[in-house]
Amino acid sequence: xxxxxxxLEKILTANDLLDGSTVYYTASGTWSPHAADSLVANSSxxxxxxAKAATDALAANLVISEExxxxxxxxxxxxxxxxxxxxxxxxxVRRDLNKSISSNK
Length: 105
Known about the structure:
Blueprint: E1 9-16, E2 22-25, E3 31-32, H1 44-59, E4 63-72, E5 78-79, H2 82-89
Antiparallel strand pairs: 1-2, 1-4, 2-3, 4-5
């Protein structure tokens, strides 16, 4: 039997040009550090609007590394790919368990 591909919604994410933090495009046309504030696109027209917003923000030197990414269905804004989940939540290694770089051990 053929596997039915689920329809994924999309959001626009980027890195803030000034501090490098991950930011998300909102419905008000601003950028937020919180994925929950994202404008969710679920049609080709709304995805085109995200693409235009990405182009405009890049031209205005507000963000870099802009990308339209899939989010998983089922309530809330949850990145669909592991790469985006790590980008949203931070490093996967506990820093308190790592040896210090300056350590001579």
